[in-house]
Amino acid sequence: MSLRPQLSVCIFVRCEELADTAIELLGGDRYVLTQIQSAVEFFGFLKHNYHLDCLVFEADGDLRSVTSKLQERSIFLPAVIFSRQPGEDGGEEMLLEDGCEAKASTQQKSQHQSCSFFYHAAEVHLPIARSKEIGSGIDRALAQFLKLSTPVPLNDQSASASATAQLTAQSLLSRQQRRLAEKLRERLGYLGVYYKRNSQIFLRNLSGPEKQQFLEQLKLNYRQIVLNYFSEDTAVNNQIDEFVNLAFFADVPVTQLVEIHMELMDEFAKQLKLEGRSEEILLDYRLTLIDAIAHLCEMYRRSIPKEASEGRK
What is the maximal distance between C-alpha atoms in the chain? Predict the structure, then answer.
């Protein structure tokens, strides 16, 4: 019998009592635990661990610096944050399951409103006095993270970020949500993720320069996919995911993907002609386009809420 996948949890707290309690309560076959004691160690650990499922933090003077760096690098993960008292250091206790969703909704209405969270709107706060609730806190953090619709900045500086940067962050968030949902599906039978999109950064709503910048990035990503598609480089699967996620969150029409493909094929055809080689090899790359479109269709299928899909039956 195969073992159910374990959830990987990183514990970065300075309170020894809190760390001991967390390790004691989370010990067993459900979690893989890593205890971190410094910011340098934490970011060094992240460089080589791409499949973390949840972070456990302590609200101290360094937390905002740490979470700000995570946001700058577009690293988004479920998080449980413990503080000495509810509301300490600008955070506030979020114990109701819909509390963070309300914060996320409020933030989407105005990115310039002040934020009362450290990392993102789906984080869960608990006082250290209730450290024995860490297991349920992690479960709540996972559930709320899967409903997070956008990576919300800690300050207004990110509100002026380019559309391409925002879409890239959204893409990385969705990839993490999908990875986590697939692990939870294996373990708990979780059914899927409902992706919410920000229409303000749809391709058709971007300014001329932003649209041009985004399309150039999209073309560059697709070019890398084509160059690696028939190689043994397994990274091409991640490249396709990134390309499709960017297209999905920008609401790029399929016709635009076809246009990008044809432009690239024309470019390659001219190069082959100069080299005196046959252009027939380019026909094989129709598979690349079909693969990308199939992945995009799957993203749209996943974006339909389960309730809505059941109502159509």
Answer: 75
- For residue 192, the one-letter residue type is G
Residue with tokens 């105005």: 110
Residue 35, SS3 per DSSP: strand
Q: Do domains 7-160 and 199-311 have the same CATH topology?
A: no
Quick: pLDDT tens for 64-110: 899 989 988 888 899 999 988 644 443 333 333 333 333 333 333 33
Q: Are 80 and 123 in contact (CB under 8 A)?
A: yes
CA atoms within 13 A on the CB side of 303: 16
Beta bridge partners of 206: none
Residue 47 has a CB neighbour count (10 Å cut-off) of 7
Whole-number pLDDT of residue 306: 54
| DSSP 8-state code for residue 155 | S
7-160 fold: Rossmann fold (3.40.50)
Instruction: Quickly tell me which residue has 């159509």 as its tokens.
Output: 312
Q: How far apart are CA 154 and CA 114, in angstroms?
A: 8
Cβ neighbourhood burial of 149 (10 Å; 0-12, 13-18, 19+): buried
3-state secondary structure 217-272: HHHHHHHHHHHHCCCCCCHHHHHHHHHHHHHHHCCCCHHHHHHHHHHHHHHHHHHH
Q: Measured between alpha carbons, how far is 245 from 295 in angstroms, rounded to an integer?
A: 9
Question: Which amino acid belongs to residue 136?
Answer: S
Distance of CA 136 to the CA centre of its chain: 22
* Domain definitions of the chain by residue range: 7-160, 199-311
Name the pairing type of β-strands 124-127 and 79-83.
Answer: parallel
CATH architecture of the domain 199-311 equals: Orthogonal Bundle (1.10)
